[in-house]
Specification:
Keywords: Ion channel, Ion transport, Membrane, Sodium, Sodium channel, Sodium transport, Transmembrane, Transmembrane helix, Transport. The chain is an alpha+beta fold. It is about 40% helix and about 20% strand.
């Protein structure tokens, strides 16, 4: 019995001894760790005092002086902290000002040396019911006039296709390639243009007006950076003695709509109506406008677009797969395509050919028609109106166009071909220059001036602090 009891005590005491030894071990480790922390803290405090005593910056050396009473050092510390707060607030305010007011605009009037690019004029064919009727009969898709409206809405798609909702539509037409239908019914350049003149000189229309894919379908544009082939540009020189700085005159074989815009722009549904005019066949149109160019200083591209609040033509976001040049209109078109893809999982058949695999069928066109108010209209910033919310920056190089007058004379009796004239009203005598008001170097200099004014420090003072805290041997603490 005694043996059993001794064995029992021996077996129960072993775990207790192990537990006690473990607790004692961790206790010793804790004491050792705590001792190391205390030792390193003491060394760090000594190092700070040593650093403060030897720094050339004003203030820290006074705080660790033993010959100054504690009360005076405390008062000085309060003042020192207040100066730091003022310095940080000043630097923060200057930084915010740098972010918000980096760019400034000035005007130039040394116009004798300027050569101004004439505006880009884009011509788009508008619906011609008679032509649609003739072609639809020839292509066997015409049945007693039932599909005139459907073909018109397909060929000249403007955001809606109400005839797509009809149940009496030809199955052959429904299953067709809508982009191919549009291409078949639209006029070619040689069929659309009759004559063109630049400053009284006859020119080859199709050499200067190149095909351009827009939201209105295939149009023809001159002076445009997006067109392929020969990029012939029209210029007007400041040394010209003519009263009219530049005159472009065109005559077309049917109704059309003309747009005046910058060379990097593309006509889009929401373009301002004062820069566009519809000219029926036989009518005579005259548009007079003026130009104010925008010039950028070499430092402007160094500022990020979000700060300068504009983009250069070569700053095209990676998601813009269909465009090589950036402009405000390009951004709106891309925004609308993305909205159509999100809402209806397809985009209309007049979109760039890069989206051909995502063109809408009949159900897709019905979806676009359903969301017409959202997709066609742009939302005004700061309002809750229905429309596209596109965060688009303007172009840094787009000139300011001002339409001086716009006149349309319709035919009274017989229909005869009459021209449309686009006239640069006067030679530009003023330019706007975009300048960098505050560069990154200005920001650094301002911060350095504030640091030097408040603490008498410099860039070497920062190096000095790093040296004393990190590279100076701890044995000197």
């Amino acid at each position: 019995m005694q043996y059993i009891n001794n064995g029992f005590y021996s077996y129960t005491s072993i775990p207790l001894l192990i537990t006690f030894a473990t607790v004692l071990h961790y206790r010793n480790m804790e004491l050792t760790l705590w001792g190391k922390i205390k030792e390193h803290t003491r060394l760090f405090c000594h190092r700070l005092k040593y650093t403060f005593r030897n720094l050339t910056v004003h203030g820290p050396s006074y705080l660790v002086r033993k010959d100054v009473h504690f009360v005076f050092r405390f008062i000085y510390l309060v003042i020192y902290v207040q100066i730091w707060i003022i310095a940080v607030a000043t630097i923060r305010q200057y930084y915010d000002h740098y972010q918000e007011n980096t760019i400034r605009f000035t005007s130039r009037t040394d116009y004798l040396d300027w050569n101004t690019t004439f505006a880009s004029v884009t011509v788009c064919e508008v619906a011609n019911i008679e032509k649609l009727w003739k072609l639809s009969k020839r292509l066997d898709v015409y049945e007693e006039g039932k599909y005139d409206r459907f073909l018109t809405e397909i060929v000249f798609f403007g955001g809606t296709c109400y005839s797509c909702l009809s149940k009496n539509t030809n199955d052959t037409v429904i299953s067709s390639d809508y982009s191919q239908i549009a291409a078949t019914f639209r006029s070619s350049c040689k069929d659309l243009f009759l004559s063109c003149e630049w400053n009284g000189r006859i020119i080859n229309c199709c050499k200067y007006f190149r095909p351009l894919q827009t939201e209105f379908g295939t149009c023809y544009s001159n002076n445009n950076k997006h067109v392929g082939g020969l990029k012939k540009m029209f210029f007007t020189t400041a040394l010209s003695k003519k009263s009219e700085a530049g005159v472009l005159e065109i005559s077309l074989s049917q109704d059309y709509e003309s747009f005046i815009h910058s060379p990097e722009d593309i006509p889009f549904w929401n373009m301002e109506y004062d820069r566009r005019i519809i000219t029926p066949y036989g009518s005579e149109a005259t548009v007079r406008f003026s130009i104010m160019d925008v010039v950028n200083e070499p430092e402007v591209p160094l500022i990020v677009p979000e700060v300068r609040q504009c983009r250069f033509p070569d700053e095209v976001p990676a998601s813009y797969i269909a465009f090589q040049q950036y402009s405000y209109s390009v951004c709106i078109i891309q925004c609308r395509i993305e909205a159509q893809l999100n809402l209806c999982n397809c985009t209309h058949h007049l979109s760039p050919v890069q989206y051909k695999d995502r063109y809408c069928g009949l159900e897709g066109l019905k979806c676009l028609t359903k969301h017409y108010k959202i997709l066609r209209k742009l939302q005004v910033p700061g309002t809750n109106e229905t429309g596209l919310d596109c965060d688009c920056l303007p172009s840094c190089t787009e000139p300011d166009y001002n339409v001086v007058s716009k006149k349309l004379v319709e035919p009274e009796f017989d229909l005869k071909v009459k021209p449309a004239r686009f006239i640069l009203n006067n030679i530009p005598y003023q330019r706007v220059t975009r300048q960098v008001a505050r560069t990154t170097l200005d920001l650094v200099v301002a911060m350095g001036n504030c640091f030097g004014l408040c603490f008498g420090g410099s860039l070497l003072s920062i190096v000095e602090i790093i040296y004393y805290l990190c590279f100076k041997r701890w044995a000197f603490a």
